[in-house]
Design a protein that fits this description.
Layout: E1 2-7, E2 10-13, E3 18-26, E4 32-39, E5 46-51, E6 58-60, E7 68-73, E8 78-83, E9 92-100, E10 118-119, E11 123-128
Parallel strand pairs: 2-11
Antiparallel strand pairs: 1-3, 3-8, 4-5, 4-9, 5-6, 7-8, 9-10, 9-11
Length: 129
């Protein structure tokens, strides 16, 4: 099992940036594909970005493509989400998620909530207009 802890959220003005971090502990981090999701009040949890276990493949929701960047440091058991050009509609609780990757070669990623068994507690991002 893996434990996840997000940090880096906060209040920022429109156009600002935040760097979210997710520290993992437990079993071998490099075996896990990672994802970021977000949930606004009264809405479902939505996919934001995903990265393969070796960091070689990434995928983004259309709403954040070109503004957000997911990356990972397997030596430090940490995955990051750099968020730039933030908009009020990006306001949400951001969650990181992990699952053991079953893809050969380390390049696969996952984009659906139900595919991830491990979740952090979330970090609030609020973008003011």
């Amino acid at each position: 099992q893996v434990q996840l802890a997000e940090s880096g959220g906060g209040l920022v003005q429109t156009g600002g940036s935040l760097r979210l971090s997710c520290a993992a502990s437990g079993r071998t981090f490099s075996s896990y594909a990672m994802g970021w999701f977000r949930q606004a009040p009264g809405k479902e949890r939505d996919f934001v970005a995903a990265i393969s276990k070796n960091g070689g493949s990434t995928h983004y929701a259309d709403s954040v493509k070109g503004r957000f960047t997911i990356s990972r440091d397997n030596a430090k058991n940490t995955v990051f989400l750099q968020t730039n050009s933030l908009k009020p509609e990006d306001t949400a609780v951001y969650y990181c998620a992990a699952r053991e990757s079953t893809y050969d070669g380390g390049y696969g990623y996952y984009t659906l909530v139900y595919e991830y068994p491990y979740w952090g507690q979330g970090t609030q991002v609020t973008v003011s207009s």
